[in-house]
Amino acid sequence: MNKVELGARHRAMREDVLRMSVADYAAYVGVRSVTVYSWEAGRTSVPHTVLAKLAREHSVSVPWLLTGSGAPTEAAVVVRGARPSDRSSGIRIPLLALGVSAGSPVTADDTIDSEVDLATMLLEHPESTYFIRVVGDSMSDAGIADGDMLIVDCSLQPKPGQIVIAKVFGELTVKRYLVVDEAPYLRAENRRHKDIPITADMDFVIVGVVRSCIKQL
Questions:
Q1: Which one from 59, 61, 138, 140 is the annotated catalytic residue?
Q2: Annotated catalytic, 212?
Q3: Is residue 52 domain-shared with residue 153, that is, in the same domain?
Q4: CB 167: neighbour CB atoms within 10 A?
């Protein structure tokens, strides 16, 4: 990910989507103007809390800001422009009353217990949720494989032990966030990949928390 291009997209979002001056934007997100200039120059990373605010209040596309894919104001969720009160996809899938056995076979029963709306079930905060596809096998021991689709919530405050999407020196990565003796680091769930210590001088920000993993079988 090119930091200069990332900063340019952030500036374009502020000027063309929000139509705010640097001073007004800084006041809106609660930082100093010099911090905004640093974001737009690509020197430092935009905190996940700011990304969540932009997505929630202005429908700014987080994937577009981070990667340039899509459009600046595309909703990064299954339902375009969804909000907590209207996040239903409108497509409801029958849920059978009988669970499937992973051991001995059980008698089949096709009685429908209820109907499930996948958007409601999977998206707790649809206005700040996006999908991202996994590239690589560094999290294979956590059940996350190359090609899987992750559902990421960028409105959540990350907690130690959670799997997160982080931006490290301009590159996105999925790792487990841990803190040992007050020292944070990103742990790979594959012995062939190294952990990433987090230091005060590195360009680092946690973009969001991984809530679900969708696999193709």
A1: 138
A2: no
A3: yes
A4: 20
59 & 161 share domain: yes
Give the 3-state secondary structure percentages of the chain, helix then strand then coil, rounded to 5.
Answer: 30, 25, 45
Q: What is the pLDDT of residues 57-115, one digit of tens each?
A: 888 877 777 777 677 875 433 333 333 344 455 555 454 554 444 555 555 555 555 66
pTM score of the predicted model: 0.59
Which residues fall within 8 angstroms of residue 79, CB to CB, at 6 or more apart?
A: 86, 87, 88, 89, 119, 126
pLDDT in tens, 31-45: 899 998 988 888 887
Which residue shows structure tokens 């689709």? 149
175 is catalytic: yes
Same domain, 149 and 118: no
